[in-house]
Q: What sequence folds into this?
């Protein structure tokens, strides 16, 4: 559900202005009405003072009427003590001197009674309706500018909002115009303070995506490069097979081709493992590390036996951690596989599982050549191989290990076993709760 | 023709050795740059196949050292690095050709023949002294209008002699060009090969100079 800032602001502004307008009109109506009453009372008083002393009741017809055409100005003058009471309004006879509001024959009148020294009382009357009309008209005229203000303010708010949001619209255009491989930060100058954090968040996201895509590109390039070597070997081996002249040479040349295929398969397996474990979204559950180690040994025992390497576990009972089982299995499998690959024949590889403080620790200890201290960080880079290493690994094993370790929230480190010889690969997993 | 192969990938190295020996080359194979440099300073190779990403000493460093020592031996870089910059750098360091992995064996052999031919100062691929001619691509020899097919070793020996008609090559010089490090050489192997060639092409194709060596006649 989208909503418009502009519409919302317009509605609220409109209602507020209208409410204040009505309130202001009410107040001004009341003041105007009151003032009009006072003014007209003054007028009645002045008329009475001016005409009263000289008042002679007409011999026939009604009392003195001023201009009949405008009812507002219609004023009736009469004497209360006249014997001919039928003349003028039928006012009560006992009215005292001063102002009175009376209802006579369904009309409301304002009456001023002037007592003359002669004892005669003169009544000057004016219809109330006419007086009210004039007061209402004056009140309404004061409401008009307020009502006129509403559309004006709405228009203004629309303009202001449009102007404030134009940097956002501009930014959207810039983002739309971007190609999918452009990760330069968006220009945030001119962006309102309220929207700036949003722009900054987008820029931070762009930065993270750029790093991640860069890593993936590098990985793909490295992977393609790594595939070249087995592919070259396969090409050459097939052609050697093609050019073999006797069945014996043919058979001799078939063996390396099989090895070459096996090597390519292993590399592809590792590449897939690397790709899959990144997308792994299994739910973590309780896993016993000793049980995982057992599975790893079952899966790698044939490799160890082929090279007469002793493979075993050192443990003092189950160590439970909450983790994705497939991930921790892959982590251990790759560490042990790496150790088996680089340990000489008749060597040993031991998996040691224990709890150290608030961490579960898996150590894979071998008595192979070890890794020089200056290489211990680089060996985790994908496809990196220590110069002079002749073992034909994919160069991905330890990279996979570190990827998994980071994802599981643990850490992996290398140390030497003793006096620089032998390697200890340790994975530490924090125990929570 | 004796070739030095410097390649750290065992599988590629083994396959290349098989292919090169099939094509009658004597191959010495080393797995790292330092040993490669050592071999180059000891032996005169007809050509070098050089990988770039080598342990202990990079391929480019091996090449730089080789050229600094004044050697003009043809070098073909064989590598998985395929950017234009890599090729330019390799050629500028003194390589004669550049092959990107993976490649076809036949292409590699053709390029090898080409750099060796240029090295020997021949414009045409076929070697000849006017009497006998030899096609390195097919290993066929021609003499008096007839075509003869030679064995790999026979070809290698005749190629060595025809590369410099008129100059005498001693037994050990011929052995150097025909056999690699790990190959056992019978003491009369050269005589045996020359006997075979003379049987096919006629006795007067190769002259024997007692106590010195063998030669083919200079072009008239």
A:
């Amino acid at each position: 559900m989208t909503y418009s800032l502009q519409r919302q602001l317009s509605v609220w502004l409109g209602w507020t202005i209208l409410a204040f307008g009505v309130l202001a009109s009410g107040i001004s109506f009341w003041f105007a009405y009151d003032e009009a009453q006072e003014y007209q009372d003054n007028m009645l008083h002045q008329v009475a003072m001016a005409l009263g002393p000289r008042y002679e009741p007409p011999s026939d017809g009604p009392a003195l009427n001023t201009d009949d055409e405008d009812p507002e100005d219609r004023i009736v003058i009469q004497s209360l003590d006249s014997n001919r009471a039928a003349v003028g309004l039928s006012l009560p006879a006992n009215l005292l001197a001063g102002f009175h509001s009376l209802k006579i024959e369904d009309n409301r009148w304002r009456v001023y009674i002037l007592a003359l020294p002669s004892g005669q009382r003169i009544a000057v009357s004016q219809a109330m309706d006419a007086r009210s009309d004039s007061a209402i008209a004056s009140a309404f005229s004061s409401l008009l500018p307020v009502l006129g203000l509403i559309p004006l303010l709405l228009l203004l708010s629309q303009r202001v909002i449009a102007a404030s949001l134009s940097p956002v619209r501009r930014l959207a255009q810039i983002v739309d115009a971007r190609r999918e491989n452009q990760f330069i930060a968006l220009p945030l100058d001119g962006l309102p303070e309220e929207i700036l954090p949003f722009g900054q968040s987008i820029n931070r996201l762009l930065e993270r995506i750029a790093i991640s895509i860069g890593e993936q590109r590098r990985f793909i390039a490295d992977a393609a490069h790594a595939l070249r070597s087995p592919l070259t070997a396969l090409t050459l081996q097939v052609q050697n097979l093609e050019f073999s002249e006797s069945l014996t040479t043919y058979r001799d040349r078939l063996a390396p081709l099989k090895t070459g295929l096996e090597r390519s398969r292993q590399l592809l397996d590792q590449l897939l493992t690397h790709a899959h474990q990144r997308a792994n979204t299994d739910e973590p559950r309780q896993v016993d590390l000793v049980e995982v180690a057992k599975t790893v040994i079952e899966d790698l025992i044939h490799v160890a036996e082929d090279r007469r390497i002793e493979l075993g576990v050192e443990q003092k009972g189950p160590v439970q951690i909450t983790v994705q089982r497939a991930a921790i299995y892959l982590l251990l499998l790759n560490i042990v596989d790496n150790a088996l690959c680089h340990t000489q024949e008749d060597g040993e590889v031991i998996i040691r599982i224990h709890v150290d403080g608030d961490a579960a620790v898996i150590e894979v200890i071998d008595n192979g050549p070890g890794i020089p201290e200056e290489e211990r960080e680089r060996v985790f880079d994908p496809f990196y191989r220590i110069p002079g290493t002749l073992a034909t690994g994919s160069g991905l094993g330890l990279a996979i290990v570190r990827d998994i370790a980071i994802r599981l929230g643990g850490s992996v480190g290398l140390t030497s076993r003793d006096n620089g010889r032998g390697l200890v690969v340790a994975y530490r997993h924090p125990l929570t709760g | 023709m004796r070739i030095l192969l410097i390649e750290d990938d065992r599988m590629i190295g083994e396959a290349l050795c098989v292919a090169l020996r099939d094509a009658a080359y004597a191959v010495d194979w080393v797995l790292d740059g330092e040993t490669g440099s050592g071999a180059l300073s000891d032996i005169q190779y007809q050509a070098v196949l050089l990988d770039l990403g080598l342990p202990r000493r990079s391929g480019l460093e091996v090449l730089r050292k080789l050229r600094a020592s004044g050697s003009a031996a043809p070098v073909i870089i064989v590598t998985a690095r395929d950017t234009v910059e890599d090729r330019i750098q390799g050629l500028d360091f003194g390589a004669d050709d550049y092959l990107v992995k993976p490649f076809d064996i036949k292409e590699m052999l053709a390029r090898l023949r080409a750099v060796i031919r240029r090295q020997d100062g021949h414009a045409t691929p076929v070697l000849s002294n006017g009497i006998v001619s030899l096609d390195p691509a097919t290993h066929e020899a021609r003499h008096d209008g007839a075509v003869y097919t030679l064995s790999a070793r026979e070809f290698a020996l005749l190629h060595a002699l025809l590369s410099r008609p008129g100059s005498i090559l001693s037994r050990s010089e011929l052995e150097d060009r025909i056999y690699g490090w790990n190959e056992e050489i019978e003491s009369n192997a050269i005589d045996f090969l020359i006997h075979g060639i003379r049987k096919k092409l006629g006795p007067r194709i190769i002259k024997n100079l007692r106590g010195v060596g063998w030669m083919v006649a200079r072009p008239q």
Summary: The interface with chain B takes residues 225, 228-237, 239-240, 243, 253, 256, 259-260, 263, 387-390, 392 of chain A (CB under 8 Å). Residues 5-149 of chain A form one domain. Chain A has a mean pLDDT of 81.
